[in-house]
Amino acid sequence: MEHDVISEDSSHLRQMPGHHHDTIKNVKIIGFCSAKSMVELTCHILENATSLEGLTLDTIFDGNNNPADRLSVHEVGRCGRIHSPMVVPLKGAMTNEVYQARWPPAAEAEAAGRRVLVRVYGEGVEVFFDREAEVRTFESMSRHGHGPRLLGRFPNGRVEEFIHARTLSAVDLRDPEISAIIASKLREFHNLDMPGPKSVLIWDRLRNWLKTAKNLCPSDEAKEFCLDSMENEITALENELSEDYQCVGFCHNDLQYGNIMIDEETKLLTIIDYEYASFGPVAYDIANHFCEMAADYHSEKPHILDYTKYPDTDEQKQFVQSYLSSSGEEPDAEKVNNLIKSTEKYTLASHLIWGLWGIISEHVNDIDFDYMGYARQRFEQYWLKKPAILTCQVVE
């Protein structure tokens, strides 16, 4: 079924009547050429097509199959007279640009209006992961009831269900009650039966990102970060960690506070954003979460890491005990200590991965974040902690 072409002048769009279309299940819009109009029309469709199952916004070709511009959402404003929704940017994202589109209550009896989340993919992030694989993971998580629903897609982004819960803050990660809930939820996440290869990807990811960083960096940066010798570091670390018992699960790989949401009433957690998720050692996922406790991405200098906030021995033990006991069996001391030791080793892999991520992002991403300053801190921690961590393990 064809409809009238919508021109760049979106003034008439903002006066569209609020008809409800109860039988429309799939919508595809071809050749849309205004970023603001794209969001406005998306808002209108999501509000009024009550039976909608899929929404595709194709901004690559116009109605005559001629190439059109790729578009991102950069403007903030009202979506016109269609229930006066607001499009508001959400802070803290470092890979994508994220917006909340919200409507006021349609009736006085409603306590809150409807909301959706619009995710515009960051420039150049395809060097980090396969976007189609990430979307498949997203859809699979949604089907299993572990995350938001996918409402629609467009070439450089998507529309997601907005979860009515609070995103955690940096201080929440140190709260003993919340930390125990995170540990239990992470164990549940690791046990998910997800599609795709079950092989460990962490070492291939490190080598691929190292190759990309070398290609992007000028010689002075490559020298500063010792990139020419980094392959040897990766190999040595892989050999060292492969000697340990490897418990492999489906890992999130980016469990910072901004990717965890909590329902204040039920205390139920939802883990979101699966762009870096893959099968891997669960010890790495825990280690990466511990490293994220040093970060506050909503501070005045969000790239600055404070490693005095890294969990101490008691906090690590409490987290690991909560993680292991969530299966219903109380773990013995040896099992707890072994996972803590393995986790400590994997912090080194976390520093290398996110150090390389920072270098690459500096060259491909336009988001306002000091990626290079962040990378320096991660590599500094790697070189600082490596002797003590690996020597300590050998002695024991």
Automatic annotation (TrEMBL):
InterPro entries, sorted: Kinase-like_dom_sf
Signal peptide (from-to): none
Any GO BP annotation: phosphatidylethanolamine biosynthetic process
GO terms for MF: choline kinase activity; ethanolamine kinase activity
GO terms for cellular component: cytoplasm
Family: Belongs to the choline/ethanolamine kinase family.
Name of the protein: Choline kinase N-terminal domain-containing protein
Organism this protein belongs to: Oryza meridionalis
